[in-house]
Design brief:
272 residues; alpha/beta; Dihydrodipicolinate Reductase, domain 2; 2 domains; 6-stranded parallel sheet; 5-stranded mixed sheet; 10 helices; 25% strand
Length: 272
C-alpha cells in the first residue's frame, strides 16, 4: 500500500512514524503548508517522500497512492477530501468537524458512491462510538457529550474573546459552552471533531448536545458520552493524555487513525 498524509502536525507525524514501520506500506508521501516540518519527517523516516501541496503536484501522484489521510484542518479537509474523492481515491478524514456543513458532507458522500471509493472516519479521541453506532440501528432519544479540558487546551479561541471569557482567570470548573454539536464543530474546529463523529453516528448535528467545561485543575482531556433510548443507556468516559506540543489534541486520536489504518490494510473488521 502507498499513502499520502496531509498535515505534519501531532496526528500526521505520529501516524507517519507508525506507518513507516508497517511492512505492508511501501511508500508514504507527505505534504504540509510548512515544508520545514515535512522535511524533518523525510530526514527521520525511511519510506517518506515530500510532495508539494499544489493541486498540480498532487494530481501527478494520483495513480501512485491507495489512500489519502487528511490530518491537517477543517479548511484542508474542505479542499482535499473532495479533490481526491473525485479522482476515485480512498480517503481517511480526521477533521470531521467539516461535515457540520451539510452541503459539503453530502457532496463528499455522493462522490464516494459515484466514484466507488471509500471514505473513512476514525473514532478519534473518544470511546463508546461502537455502542452509539449499534443503538442507531434502532431509535435514540438523546446523545450528550460533556467535555472537560484545562485552560491550555482552550487557549486562543476567538469565541471566548467574543464572550468576554478569560480562560486563564478561571479558578474552578466552569461551563464555557453549551449548545448543539453543529455549533461546537464550527466554533471549536480543532477541539471538537468528536462532536461531529458522534453526530454522524447518532441523531445528527442539531440534536446532539455538547457541554464544554474548563477546569484549571485537570491535566487530561475528558469526554463523557451519554446515549439514551429504547435500547437502554450508554455512559462512556474517556480520559485522554494530550500531546505536549498540542494540548488541544489527544494522543488517542492519533492511535485511532493508526488502528483504523491497520484494519484497512488487513481487511479484517472486528466490532463493526
Amino acid at each position: 500500500m502507498r499513502l499520502l498524509i496531509i498535515g505534519c502536525g501531532s496526528i500526521g507525524t505520529t501516524l507517519a512514524k507508525a506507518v513507516d514501520e508497517m511492512p505492508e506500506v511501501d511508500l508514504i508521501y507527505i505534504t504540509d503548508k510548512s515544508k520545514v516540518c515535512a522535511a524533518h519527517l523525510v530526514e527521520k523516516l525511511h519510506k517518506v517522500k515530500y510532495v508539494d501541496n499544489s493541486d498540480e503536484c498532487l494530481s501527478d501522484i494520483i495513480n501512485d497512492i491507495d489512500l489519502v489521510v487528511e490530518a491537517a484542518s477543517q479548511e484542508a479537509a474542505r479542499h482535499f477530501v473532495p479533490f481526491f474523492l473525485e479522482r476515485g481515491v480512498d480517503v481517511m478524514m480526521m477533521s470531521v468537524g467539516a461535515f457540520a456543513d451539510d452541503d459539503f458532507r453530502e457532496k463528499c458522500f455522493k462522490l464516494s458512491k459515484e466514484k466507488g471509493c471509500r471514505l473513512f472516519v476514525p473514532s478519534g479521541a473518544i470511546t463508546g462510538t461502537d455502542g452509539l453506532r449499534s443503538a442507531s440501528a434502532g431509535e435514540i432519544d438523546e446523545v450528550t457529550l460533556i467535555t472537560t479540558k484545562g485552560p491550555k487546551s482552550l487557549r486562543s479561541i476567538e469565541y471566548f474573546k467574543q464572550k468576554g471569557i478569560d480562560i486563564e482567570r478561571i479558578k474552578e470548573p466552569t461551563v464555557v459552552f453549551e449548545g448543539s454539536a453543529r455549533d461546537a464543530a464550527r466554533i471549536f474546529p480543532r477541539n471538537m471533531n468528536i462532536a461531529a463523529t458522534l453526530s454522524l453516528l447518532g441523531i445528527g448535528f442539531d440534536r446532539t448536545k455538547v457541554k464544554i467545561v474548563c477546569d484549571p485543575n485537570v491535566e487530561r482531556n475528558t469526554h463523557t458520552l451519554i446515549v439514551k433510548g429504547p435500547f437502554g443507556e450508554i455512559t462512556s468516559t474517556t480520559s485522554n493524555v494530550p500531546f505536549p506540543r498540542n494540548p488541544s489534541t489527544s494522543y488517542l486520536a492519533a492511535l485511532s487513525a493508526i488502528a483504523a489504518l491497520k484494519r484497512i490494510i488487513n481487511n479484517v473488521w472486528i466490532g463493526v
